[in-house]
Structure formats: C-alpha cells, structure tokens
Amino acid sequence: MTRTAPGATPSATGISRRGLWLIGTSIVLTALNLRTAVNSVGPVLQELQEGLHLSSGLAGVVTALPVLCFAALGFAGPPLSARYRDSYVLAGAMAAMAAGLVLRGVAGSFWLFLVGTVLAMTGGALGNVLLPSLVKRYFPHRTGLLVGAYSTAMSIGGAMVAVAAQPIADAAGADGWRWAMGVWAVPAFVAALVWLAVPARPAASSGAPAAVRIRSLLRSRTAVAMALFFGIQALECYVIVGWTAQYLRDEGLSATAAGLLLSINLVMIIPVNMVVPALTVRVRLQRPLLLFFLGCYLVGWLGLWAIPLTVPWLWMGLLGVAMGTFAMVLTLIGLRTRTAETTAALSTATQGWGYLIAGAGPLLVGVLRGITGSYTGMFVLVVVGVALMTVTGWLVTRQTFVDDEVPGWSSAGPRDDDVIEVAGAEPPAAVHVRTDGGSPRG
Fold first, then answer.
1. How far, rounded to the nearest angstrom, does the alpha carbon of residue 227 sit from its chain's CA centroid?
2. Do 38 and 160 form a contact (C-beta atoms < 8 A)?
3. Residue 3 pLDDT > 50
4. Which among 270, 256, 310, 243 has a CA at the least distance from the CA of 155?
5. Is residue 341 within 8 Å of residue 431, measured between CB atoms?
6. DSSP label of 411
7. What tens digit of pLDDT does each residue of 419-436 get?
8. Are 264 and 407 spatial neighbours (Cβ–Cβ below 8 Å)?
9. 284 burial class (0-12, 13-18, 19+ CB within 10 angstroms)?
10. I want to staple 31 with a disulfide (CB 3.0 to 4.6 A). Which of 69, 153, 232, 271 is the partner?
11. Separation CA 251–CA 138 (nearest Å)
C-alpha cells in the first residue's frame, strides 16, 4: 500500500511555522464568512418578501435553499480538493461567495435571487466539508483548539450579520434589505485573497484523482448516526435563524426588538463554541454535555411556544447555548476517525446528508405556516427533533471509530475497492489497495 501520511504532525507537513500560522488564519477567516449568506436573511425576511413579492411558501424556499445547497454542493469538495490545491479551491469558493452575495443584493426577481444564493452557498458548502480535514491534516494535535477557533469565528460572523442586518437595511432606506445582504461580499473577498497567499506543500507531487466512495459509510452505524445527529441539530439551528425573528414579530414585537433577540441567540453561542471543543475531547464529558444541550433546547422551545413575550431573551438565550451541539459534532467528526482520509470522507458524508435533512426544516415551517396560519407546526417539528437528537447523540458519543465499522477499511484509513481520493491533500493523496490477495500497487 502506498499513501501520503494523513496524520502527519505539523512539522512533517513540509509547511513552515509561518505557513501553518497562515493556514490557521485562513481557516478562521473562511469560517467567519460561512454563515453570513444564511444569517442575513432572517432579520429582513419580511422586507425581502415584500421586495420580491414572495408568498409564505416561497419564503420557506428562500430560508431552506442555503441548507439544501450545503447538502448538494458539499459533495464537490473532495473531488476538487484532490485535483487542485486546497488554497486554490477555498480561494475560488470565497470568490464565488462574494459574487453570489453581490448578485443577491441586486436581484430584481425571485429566480435571480436564487441563482445568487446558490453561488454564495458554493463557498459555504466547500468550506463546511473541507475545514475539518484541514485541521486533522495540519493540526492533528490541536484539534480542540482549531475547531474551537473556527467554530467561534463562524458564530461571530453569523451573530455580526444578525445584529447588523436590520440597522443596515434601515440606514440604506428604500430596498435597504439589498445592502443588508450584499455588503458581506467584502469579507468573503478578503478571505479569498488570504488563501491565495498560502504556500503549496514543498513535497507535493502530481497524481490522478479517483472518486470518493462515500456510500461505504452507510455500512457504519456511527457514520449514519453522525449524519442524522448533524442534520437534526442543523435543522434546529436554521429554523431558529430563519423563522424565530419573524415569529416574534408576528407575536407583537417590533422588527428591531425581534432582530435584537435573534442576535442575543447568536451571540450566546460565541463563548459556548470557545469551550465546547475542548470539553468534547474529554470522553467522560461527552454525554453530560449532550444532555445539557438537549435540555436547553427543550426548555427554550417550550418557553418560546407557551409564553413568547415573557422573558423572550431567556428562551432565545437558551436556544443559543443549545446550538453548541454544532461545535460538538464538528469535534466528534475528528474524534470518530483515525486518519485525515476518514475525516474527509466522514465530514463530507455527515454534512452532505445532514444538510439535506436540515433543509427540510425551514421549508416545512413555511409550508405549514401558509396552510395553517400558525406556528404550531414549527414547534411540533423542533420538539420531535430534540427527541431524535437524544437517540442519535447517544450513539455518536460511543467511543468507537468509523474506520473499524466499514468492512474493508482498517485502522490505517479508509479503503474501498481500489483507490480513494483524499480531501484536504495538496496534491491528491490516494490509497492503493489490492483486494485479490496480491501486493499493493504503488
């Protein structure tokens, strides 16, 4: 068997300390942009509906489309990363995001707005699936630190957008919602420039990429549970981001007050994401941490449903803390794999399948609201989701490795048929396996 060492320590990557700092900085800057295109919609959803003349059903499509794009476009990450340098892939992804954000801001029709959204989500989808494998490859002994840093940056970016969207729209006057969405193209473009400065690995050599066989992970109970857990927690998150501000406005709060409460929710997750990865790497704390987050979800949702105008800051704050499940599952992706190859495959499958599940949430809320004229369907959906997260979360906190659950994979890394492409390598790293009992090709 011949393969590029996936779990190499930073000193073995061929990248200087300065280069590693630049890679770390690029990862954090990318994360800062990953939620701007999503979180800029919720605070100005009503203005967007009026500006583009959208029904409740189409508004549901708008809130669900980013998540569906994460699901569909994320699978392009490993093939692109195997063929091109990671820095080039992510620079292109951030540039596409910047272009999409600008297009959304100037769109005069619903369909053009959707095109801009897909373009913007390309950057988010590629960043989602590639960052965990980059952390595993370049910072294998600092997983908790780096995952904490980039998940915190992601939360800061999302919270910043939620806080600023309505004030930007108000300050811009007529059609101010366009500025509230388009202005975030600037930091995305900056992130693209920084990735272009990342050096190539000195020991890089060329090779032909092959297809990632993600379907192999369907044979791993842990991988399937990870995708379900990720998808349900993301569903909860995007219902919060896409619909709670509008729900509070419909309950009688002003647009500014509802936007402020959503920002409280998103700000609460920042300190949580700083500490959750470091706690998650401690085996004994994983299940207590899981139960704590699930309790916060349940109390927050029930409070918001029963008495939304009584201490709404508490309900939104609890939901913000509960969203720490995102940083937790990102950390678990690395903990449930032995190598960077498996991390790349599990990250792609978990987020691709998971976001497909998550995309149904905001869409269902919009459809149910249009049919019933109430938000009861939304609350039933998210409470059932908490119950499902309890089951799947219990499975993913078992101390096992995905590598050991897939027939034909070994502790050295994933092996499926002949060649497996590896996301996160510069250039392609491949595993060659003979399944006929002969010696490996190399």
1. 12
2. no
3. no
4. 270
5. yes
6. T
7. 333 333 333 333 333 334
8. no
9. exposed
10. 153
11. 48
For residue 356, pLDDT over 60 is answered with: yes
CB-CB neighbours of 44 under 10 Å: 25
Is 439 part of a structural domain of the chain?
A: no
Cis peptide before 427 (omega within 30 of 0): yes
pLDDT the model gives residue 421: 34
Are the beta carbons of 82 and 30 closer than 8 angstroms? no
Q: How far apart are CA 106 and CA 124, in angstroms?
A: 20
Instruction: Flag whether 218 is in a domain.
Output: yes
What's the domain range around 334? Answer: 10-432
For residue 3, the number of C-alpha atoms closer than 13 Å in the C-beta half-sphere is 22
User: Can you give the pLDDT at residue 420?
Assistant: 33
Task: Classify 168 as helix, strand or coil.
Answer: helix
Cα Rg for the chain, rounded, in angstroms?
21
User: Which of 150-154, 160-164, 211-215, 351-355 is predicted least confidently?
Assistant: 211-215
Cβ-based neighbour number of residue 172 at 10 Å: 15
What's the chain's length in residues? 442
Cβ–Cβ under 8 Å, residues 234 and 15: no
Number of domains in the chain: 1
Asked if pLDDT for residue 2 goes beyond 60, the answer is no
C-beta separation of 129 from 78 below 8 A: yes
What confidence tier does 293 reach under pLDDT thresholds 50, 70, 90? very high
d(CA 440, CA 145): 37
Amino acid at the residue 16: S
What does the pLDDT read at residue 201? 61
- Any idea what the CATH number is for the domain that residue 163 is in? 1.20.1250.20
Place of tokens 């800029």: 40
For residue 137, give the amino acid letter.
R
Question: For residues 20 and 41, what is the distance between their CA atoms, to the nearest angstrom?
Answer: 35
- Is 15 inside any structural domain? yes
Give the tokens for residue 294.
């699930």
Distance, CA of 319 to CA of 388 (rounded, Å):
17
Is residue 337 one of the residues assigned to a domain? yes
pTM above 0.70, yes or no: yes
Given a contact cutoff of 8 angstroms between Cβ atoms, the answer to whether 378 and 365 are in contact is yes
- On the CB side of 71, how many CA atoms lie within 13 Å of its CA? 19
Angle at 320 between CA 237 and CA 185, to 5 degrees: 60
99 residue type, one letter: A
Evaluate the omega torsion of the peptide bond into residue 209 and state whether it is cis, within 30 degrees of 0. Answer: no
The C-alpha angle with vertex 402 and arms to 398 and 405, in degrees rounded to 5, equals 95
The structure tokens listed for 264 are 């409280």
Query: Count of CB atoms within 10 A of residue 285's CB?
Result: 15
